[in-house]
Fold Tetratricopeptide repeat protein.
Amino acid sequence: MKKILLATIAFCCAASLSFAQDKVTETSTKVLPMFGGKQKTEAEQMKDEKFLTSCDKNFSNRQEASKFFMERGWEYLNEGQTDTAMYRFNLAWLLNPGNKDTYWAFGLVSSAQGNTNEAVDLYEKAIAIDGKNSLLLSDASEAYLTLYKDKNKKKHLKKAAGYLASATTLDGSNSFALYNMSLVKYYEKKYAEAWDYLHKSRNINMTQIDYGYVMDLVAKMPDPQGFFKQGEATATTN
């Protein structure tokens, strides 16, 4: 109960830095990863110090405070408030630049905004801190697959395949990694293996499957298990 109260107080103390109360434009550094990486003005630096001092008084440490603002960021992101979420992630990063989750979050938002090259760089920062996180590796692989589709460079496909191999070794139940590995095999024209990974993925979680991809795969090779039929966008019920 005490921890919840302290967190609430800290959030109120940070109200002066609230995104909703600040004038923000599309190019504002508040909505760019790591505040855009630009040198801050003296006034901005003073505001940061005020925020950090407030958090130091109301949290046991900055790591805890960083986690708190990460959680707020995820809440805003789930509500579709991307800019507000990014600002909260920036505050979490300001509190703890060593928090891999901030770079991970930056990567996810950048990827969703179509900034794939930036997303890859941010994922790499997160992986440099925690290279044994299956979910992180699978998210990074998706960005590399997007780059491969856009630029058709084998180095991107190779990078995705490597991360997915690690992700599935770390967690064999990571359905997203298995699905992305199916895509890798499809691009490599190894359609039987693509089907194998696709079925492993859908046995765990059907919701992430892109049926446009399924139809593309069916066109290259009929489903060996007969679960997906040619010309159909849905699975059989047999």
Remarks:
- Residues 1-118 form one domain.
